Queue: 3 jobs
Job 1
Amino acid sequence: MRPPFRKKAREVAFLTLYTWDMRGEELKQIFDEVVRERGLKSKRVLSYADALVKTVEEHLTEIDAKIEEKLKDWSLDRLGFVERNALRLGTGELLFLKPPDPGRVFIDVVDLVRKYADDKAARFVNGVLSAVFKDSSLTAQEEKEEVKQDGKQEREKQGGG
């Protein structure tokens, strides 16, 4: 059975971000290189991988800040390339692309870390990513509650309470 297209896309995006972080070259150039080396042709994989890379690039400052908030006694630049870019990938996808199955994002990102680093790094990434996601989920829930409360107050003002 072939892996789902999002799993493949995540690996392409991860390898692109990892290489970009190490070499500092243009992201588009690195993305094209990774795609060529892997012989990828699937439009779905390429489209989603491209969206992931662009999301991280466009929101890098915000993504890094969210990750830094959850690092205890660490800074982002002290992390290894694998851990840092796996966290960027997962955080970017969870916060900005709103995937249909967030749990799958965790599994795939942690599997990438396990593949390219080790189990200890995978556990670390899982913990930080969980904290980022939990925080963003709470924020989203609080916003929903606030909107709900505002709507209720507005109806009460109009006498329809």
Job 2
Amino acid sequence: RTSRGTVATVDHEVVTEDRLFEIVRALALPILALESGGVDITTFPFPEAGIAVIGGEEVGVTPSLLRLCDASLGRATIMMGGTKGSLNVASATAIMLQRWYTS
């Protein structure tokens, strides 16, 4: 998702999970999940190029996608305090991308 001013300039495609598996295999890039229960994002070994899967804040990443990620790079986790264990998807993605870019 992007703002109305840039939606036409960002390449994107909505795909089924099966199609995503095909794309990942074809690209042969490492894949990670931004999900709880993983390596702290501040020490996660981000690759130079790769694929990130970010799930919704209530249901997270599907079990089959988690298995795919766990067999590759694993899970990056934004450590949080307090009682709420999730962030807005856009906020979490922004934090992850900034960390990946500067790693």
Job 3
Amino acid sequence: RVSYPLRDLFLRYLRAHALVTAEQLAHEFSLGIAIVEEQLQQLREQGLVMNLQQDIWVSDEVFRRLRLRSLQAAREA
């Protein structure tokens, strides 16, 4: 049994897509924007996602991978 189905669904989606807006999530899962924004805020408070600029969200795992790749590319340059 899944304890937090919506949270887990959002996390899976965010881990599979680099940068996502609340509107994209609302459209993808046919949810109201208020529900999506509330879930994203809860995920942010739990340290599982980051809010970059305005309405752009990224999972902490994806952000770490992007940062590592960026640092590796800078070292190789």
